[in-house]
Design a protein that fits this description.
It is a single chain. This protein has 27 helices and 29 strands. The strands form five sheets. It has a 17-stranded parallel sheet, sandwiched between helices. Strands 2-3-4-1-5 form a five-stranded parallel sheet, sandwiched between helices. Helix 2 (about 50-70) packs antiparallel against helix 3, helix 3 (about 80-110) packs antiparallel against helix 5 and helix 15 (about 385-395) runs antiparallel to helix 17.
Length: about 950
């Protein structure tokens, strides 16, 4: 009995087929079932007995997967169920590791016929399909062993099957939101401002039609408490009202009966009413001519709201409906009109956080012992203004001795689940509601964030690429996994589980961070699912390590002793000097060492032995070269070596046929044979004209994103540069011809890529001082971003204005910019973002932003100039959302700026005094108030911690 595989496993850069559902609770089961299914297709040549065993494995594992999925929705399983789930999940990892080893054995016997022809090629191929007899027996034996293990596990649980009907029923939980409804107002902190703001809004325009307000924010911010206080404040001004809380699986009839009972003040009159249409009719009839106020707390999905709103009649009595939710899209769907309001809950301010914290423990801050003030500061930083966390931790501390050691113990015990306080359990329960409301495929994705440190700003694309390499993202045939992963990311933002950072003009966040309290929950949950392991300073982890992060605070001896033979992901952060040995980590999929600035070449010397590696990031380290064995890592999909210390890639990377994403620093020398990487989807940033065979670029027809740097000067072997003009004079004709040919080949390659579906081409264009020619590139539709380095920008303006899909344009160092240049830039049809760094420009001149141009611009960054240099005509930049001012040298004058758009103005505070920043803010506010269009204006400060002290 033996196994033949003749084709490579499917590429993973794009989804190739529908795979089983991936969930944290199912371990590797989802990807494993996909692989077993592929092995049963005609592409794979299995002998009869082995095919039968594989079919048995697949059928058994499908049943186990169904069991795991069902159990993953049980919030508090009993101990026998936990044991069974853990056993089956861990078995899935072990089986996948074995299957992947089979794949590597097959990979080693793939034909290498590049130079063979005719009968020799056929013979080589046939020989490659005949692994030695030892390999055949090994594969067959391991398939049989896996089959026996599955039978053994099934038989064991059958022997100890528990009669579920005889087990003790779960204790009913009291809904923790009940406490919020009866909070004494004197116990609340920070509620006055949001309450008064919403009360004012709800009282406006009495007598008008029904209006809605939605309050959105993540669990624990106090949405229910806020709604309850508004009800107390306004209840008497309405003829009737109701307050109902919604569960994740709501009973619509019960909710409607509760509303009917509350508005009619007849508690038990409708308990037997079972017809949902009749209940709605009675509600509508009662509310028809009454001014009512309904609060619906904690809605989880839009469908629930669409049903409930049918019961609320639209009258002109000034009625109001208030909704609270954790999900942004639900909030927007509940308040769809411009007359409605979507109110985003904010964390408590630093002052209110202190007040709440000390009030619960000592009565006031002044009563806190000096010895505990530093510990208090650390604890409050961890809570980050979340009332739920402040209440939970302060309640624990109120019952402990007043020593720093005891306070630190309580703080750390929350993460390790040693704390048994009722309010801690309430906090975890509220957070778990959001977790269990997630679809299964998002649970692995959110738990994966446990691998990142506290306060880490997590790049979206980096996270999505790691999800892909871990097998968390599966789509339909041909679906782009990066796009699907971005959807996953934004859904977690939408559900308020991660906090968006650096939101672009398209409304999408490029980064995220995780609230410390949510991170603690994720760490505990991922430990329970054995998805991630978080090292403590002096404790060696128990059990098998699947995914781990090294933060640099661990004991170095423990790090070196780690058993990572089963690890699938290793990440490192900070100034770590040592890594555990990678030689035995044969199951590793992800190795992320980004920004570990003290790591050197010897740390990755065993990289060629990581046969399962999909993701490698060594950017911004001290590593200066990749081992030539990198070409043996045949499954590698993402390679990030962005670093000015790494100047050349080995020839062996051209063997990485699955490589989908390659990132290098501009100036890094790429090997010949770049065109072999036919599955590349992202490539950057390459020095395009320095490629020895630039025509190779045109072979990468699957590219979707490309970043290039263009010099109008040519780089010689000794590092000197010559411009095109110089090449025509001083240097030989062949030098000029080579440069011309390189440009022609580059144009040909880029045109071909444009035709083949290249979506985004970013160009860093560096103009030589003596180069008088305009850009040689055509106006390609794929060009999305251009950065122009060079002082005299007039030579490139016409070409820029001809680009139909240019979205982002940056001028880092123009020596001068004329009015005609601004006018031409304004003609770029789809320009969305413009950045001007005007450090050396003449402030005596004035540049006018005319109303005819910049019709699509949404973000405008101005750096290093007096605001007096710019004047906006009325109606200019009609779609502008954000005006960002960096290093401005004087406050703007209302006489020089006239605008009629609603914007956010971001003021960079670096190098300015608080008085100067405030003067600029006041000037903009005055302009907004004086403008007849009364534009909306939001002021934000960037880097306020770097403001100078006022004299």
């Amino acid at each position: 009995m033996f196994l033949f595989l003749t084709e490579l496993p499917p590429l993973r850069g794009r989804a190739t087929m529908a795979a089983a559902l991936v969930s944290a609770s199912t371990g590797a089961m989802g990807s494993l079932l996909g692989k077993l299914g592929a092995m049963l297709t005609d592409e794979y040549k299995l002998l009869k007995d082995v095919r039968g065993d594989i079919k048995f494995l697949k059928d058994e594992l499908e049943m186990m997967n169904a069991f795991l999925l069902k159990m993953s929705d049980v919030e508090e399983p009993d101990e026998p169920t936990k044991l069974r789930v853990t056993t089956v999940r861990e078995m899935s990892y072990k089986i996948e590791d074995n299957i992947d080893k089979f794949m590597v054995l097959v990979e080693e016997h793939q034909p290498s016929c590049s130079g063979a022809h005719g009968i020799r090629k056929l013979i080589d191929k046939c020989n490659s399909l005949l692994p030695d007899i030892k390999t055949r027996h090994k594969i067959a034996k391991e398939v049989k062993d896996i089959k026996n293990q599955i039978k053994e596990v099934s038989d064991r649980f059958l022997r100890y099957k528990i009669d579920e009907s005889s087990s003790m029923p779960a204790k009913d939980k009291v809904d923790p939101r009940l406490r919020a409804l009866y909070k004494d107002a004197t116990d609340l902190v920070g509620i006055d401002e949001p309450r008064d703001e919403l009360v004012k809004w709800l009282n406006e325009k009495e007598g008008e039609s029904l209006r809605f307000v939605s309050v959105v924010g993540y669990g624990g911010l106090g949405k229910t408490t806020l709604a309850s206080q508004i009800r107390i404040k306004l209840g008497a001004t309405f003829e009737c009202g109701a307050f109902v809380s919604i569960s994740r699986k709501p009973d619509i009839k019960a909710i409607l009966r509760s509303i009917l009972s509350q508005i009619t003040k007849q508690d038990n009159a409708y308990s037997g009413l079972d017809d949902i249409y009749l209940i709605m009719d009675k509600i509508r009839e009662f509310l028809q001519n009454r001014r009512y106020f309904i609060i619906i707390d904690d809605i989880w999905e839009s469908g629930t709201w669409e049903t409930l709103k049918c019961a609320f009649v639209k009258n002109t009595c000034g009625s109001r409906i208030m909704i609270t939710t954790r999900i942004v899209d639900v909030a927007k769907s509940c308040s769809p009109s411009n007359e409605d309001l979507v109110y985003e809950m904010k964390p408590l301010s630093e002052a209110d956080s202190k007040k709440l914290f000390f009030k619960r423990i000592f009565g006031c801050e002044e009563s806190c012992p000096d010895s505990l003030k530093e510990a208090s500061k650390d604890i409050l930083k961890k809570c980050r203004g979340l009332p739920l966390a402040i209440n939970a931790i302060s309640s624990l501390l109120a019952t402990t001795s007043e020593t720093k050691e005891e306070w630190d113990r309580v703080r750390h015990s929350i993460r390790s689940s040693d704390a048994k306080s009722d309010i801690i359990e309430t906090m975890n329960y509220i957070l778990s509601l959001s977790y269990f409301d997630l679809p299964h495929h998002l649970r692995s994705c959110i738990l994966y964030l446990a691998l990142f440190p506290e306060d880490e700003l997590i790049e979206r694309d980096r996270l999505v690429r790691r999800w892909i390499s871990e097998g968390f993202i599966h789509g339909k045939s041909g679906q782009d996994l990066m796009e699907l992963g971005e959807e996953y990311f934004h859904e977690l933002v939408n559900r308020s589980l991660i906090q968006p950072k650096r939101i672009g003009y398209d409304g999408k966040a490029k980064y995220c961070c995780v609230h410390d309290t949510i991170l603690d929950f994720l760490i505990a949950k991922s430990f329970e699912e054995n998805l991630c392991t978080v090292l403590t300073k002096k404790c060696k982890p128990d059990g098998i390590v699947r995914r781990i992060s090294i933060m640099g605070t661990e004991d170095e001896d423990i790090v070196e002793q780690l058993d990572l033979s089963h690890a699938r992901s290793i990440g490192a952060f900070g100034d770590i000097k040592r890594l555990p040995s990678l030689g035995k980590s044969e199951s590793l999929r992800v190795l992320d060492l980004r920004n570990c600035s003290k790591l050197e070449n010897h740390h990755i010397k065993d990289i060629g032995r990581l046969y399962q590696l999909r993701y490698l990031d060594i950017s911004f380290t001290r590593i200066t070269e990749l081992p030539s064995q990198i070409g043996d890592v045949v499954y590698l999909e993402t390679l990030n070596v962005t670093s000015y210390k790494l100047r050349e890639l080995p020839e062996s990377i051209t063997r990485l046929r699955r490589l989908a994403r390659l990132f290098v620093s501009a100036g890094c020398k790429l090997p010949d044979g770049l065109g072999n990487l036919v599955n590349l989807q992202e490539l950057g940033e390459i020095d395009a004209l320095q490629l020895k065979h630039v025509e190779e670029l045109g072979k990468l027809t699957n590219l979707r994103k490309l970043k290039i740097r263009l010099h109008t000067d040519r780089k010689l072997e000794d590092g000197r540069r010559i411009s095109t003009v110089q090449a025509c004079g001083r240097f030989q004709a062949e030098e000029r011809d080579t440069l011309v040919q390189s440009k022609e080949k580059l144009v040909s390659s880029l045109c071909k890529l444009d035709e083949c579906g290249l979506r985004s081409l970013s160009i860093s264009y560096e103009m030589g001082d003596k180069d008088g020619q305009e850009p040689f590139l055509p106006a390609l539709g794929c060009i999305r971003k251009v950065i122009v380095h060079g002082q005299d920008i007039c030579r490139i303006i016409r070409w820029l204005a001809s680009l139909p899909n240019l979205h982002r344009l940056t001028f880092p160092n123009p020596k001068k910019i004329e009015q005609q240049d601004i006018d031409m830039i304004g003609l770029i049809p789809n320009l969305l973002e413009l950045s001007l760094y005007l450090h050396g420009t003449d402030d005596a001149r004035q540049l006018i932003i005319r109303c005819e141009g910049f019709q699509q611009l949404q973000r405008f960054v101005v750096c290093g100039a007096s605001m007096g240099i710019l004047m906006f005509e009325a109606g200019a930049m009609p779609r502008l959302k954000e005006l960002e001012l960096r290093r401005f040298r004087e406050k703007p004058k209302s006489s020089t700026v006239n605008y009629d758009f609603g914007i956010t103005v971001s003021l960079w505070c670096i190098g300015l005094t608080a008085a100067e920043v405030k003067a600029a803010e006041d000037a903009f506010k005055s302009m907004a108030e004086a403008n007849p269009n009364r534009p909306s204006l939001e002021m934000t400060r960037r880097n306020p911690q770097y403001m100078l002290q006022d004299e």
